[in-house]
Amino acid sequence: MNRFIRLILFVLIISAGLIYPQRLLKISVSLNGKTEHLSYVTRNGISYGSSIELSKLLGGNYFYNSEAAKVEMKFDNFRLKVTGRNQFVVLTSRTGEQLNIFQLPISTLMIHEDVFIPLTYSLKFIQTASEQEIRFDERTKHLVLTGKTVQQKNVYNIPEIENKEQPVVELKKNTPTSSKYDIYQLSVEEKTNGTLIRLKAKKKINKFSSNIQDGKLRLYISGASVDPNLLRGLKSSGFIKSAALKNVSGNRQIEFLLNEGYATHESIKDFDSDDIIITIHSKIFEPVVKDPTKTKAEWNFDAVVIDAGHGGKDAGAIGVSGVREKDINLKIALELGRLIKQKLPDVKVIYTRNNDTFVELYKRGKIANENNGKLFISIHCNSIKQKNSSTRGFEVYLLRPGKTDKAIEIAEFENSVISLEDNPDRYQKLTDENFILVSMAHSAYMRYSEKFSDLLNKNWISGVKHVPSRGVKQAGFYVLVGASMPGVLVEAGFLSNKKDEAYLNSTRGQQEIAESIFKTVKEYKAHYQAQMEAES
């Protein structure tokens, strides 16, 4: 259903990974005619290797920051900073000058005071930093350090990722300008999750830095000329109240006076141009960090938000025999809520709708937040254009970039409901830039969403025999944009398939599906409470 907005990239609740103590495996490493070994673990079919050990194997050194859960891999000319439970990798020069930020398609893991990195996706960046050729065979679990030097012509360009389905974020190149100044244009955009400032540049700006102090964000620029009319016509937007261009010790400084409500910020070089991008994150979208001043009771797993997709004037997908998705979603949601109330009486159930009512997407997240939900479950049924299709099965979606056309298409359909709302313009187009802004602010939720998804997929396979599992997938859905908590979107089956539709429309099917989700909620609750205890 390629109508309305095409969602290319979106993350709310950016990924984070956690793994319990376990026996580390060993990858064989060919190095200088000898066989060495690298500690690794496997999760969901992906090998994660020790960043500390890999640094030493490559002849480098490392620095571990326990407070930040960060490893700095140190080589002759470059440094690579990797953070536990995070997707972002920072490349700096030997002197600490930030050169680029790369994004991995999945998060790193934190194990035994070491950051374990997904090898398939990380080695290109490590090769860039170490300037050494690295080869890895995922199938045989064999790593080859060839000893060949790899000259980096331009460390500002992202190394190409071999897996084309897991692209690194790419931003559009700017059109060359005839301006005589190095930095010639500034724009400020208000996003759903904060404010994005872009400074367009004609050349690579080697030295720039920023900080926030006393309600002012200051950007310091060295060795570059700035158009004196850069701020002409600039209006208050987002967190930017006003701005001033200053000359400090022969260098240019841009000072932004900020509105209240900001949390953190980042200043980076654009991935695919010479522009400087500053992202200012909203407090509303800060990740969950346990506040020591809160009582233990406030962190209890005591509220689940159940979102029955579609409703009212939005029927959702229509099945082979005319079954309406909105009706199936509601029945499963109500049965799930009944089970939770009956078997987990200490957990409050919040419905975004409990009857055939149209609820706008942004209000669903608002309902979840106002009720202090600890988990958000959005229930849907899938469908494709071709009716009576052989395509069938259950899927559970995490809020990450849609990496396949099919995932993007599903997100488009679920998001298309905004056309029925009174003010669809309230939803920002989910561009690459929004993705950067969101993903840096939401990594803390993802480990919980991942855990719930893994548990649900396992319980579905064992408990729902009539609808096969298609696994855990990822795409962008507006419904979870405002839900500041772990969350997933469940596609219980395909209404465009006769077998799935019949099962989804049956009382037995709805009960078995609800029981499978309930079992997952119960197991997840135990996991969540254990994590809260461990962090207290």
Note the main attributes of this structure:
24% helix, Copper Amine Oxidase, Chain A, domain 1, 536 residues, alpha+beta, disordered N terminus, 7-stranded mixed β-sheet, single chain, Aminopeptidase, 3 domains, 6-stranded mixed β-sheet
Q: How would you characterize this protein structure?
A:
This protein has 536 residues and is α+β, with helices and mostly antiparallel strands. The protein folds into three domains: 125 residues, Copper Amine Oxidase, Chain A, domain 1, CATH 3.30.457.10; 87 residues; 208 residues, Zn-dependent exopeptidases (Aminopeptidase). The strands form five sheets. It has a seven-stranded mixed β-sheet with strand order 9-10-3-2-1-12-11. Strands 22-21-23-26-24-25 form a six-stranded mixed β-sheet, with helices on both faces. The longest helix has 29 residues.
Strand order, biggest sheet? 9-10-3-2-1-12-11
Unreliable stretches covering 5 or more consecutive residues? 1-22, 154-176, 285-294, 400-443, 475-481
- Percent range for helical residues? 10-25%
Secondary-structure-based class equals: alpha+beta
The overall pLDDT average reads 77
User: What is the CATH topology descriptor of the largest domain?
Assistant: Aminopeptidase
* Main sheet overview: 7 strands, mixed
Number of distinct beta strands: 26
Looking at the structure, what is the overall shape?
globular
CATH architectural grouping of the largest domain: 3-Layer(aba) Sandwich
- Number of contiguous helices: 9
Report, as a whole number of angstroms, the end-to-end distance.
46 Å
CATH superfamily of the largest domain: Zn-dependent exopeptidases
Strand content: 25-35%
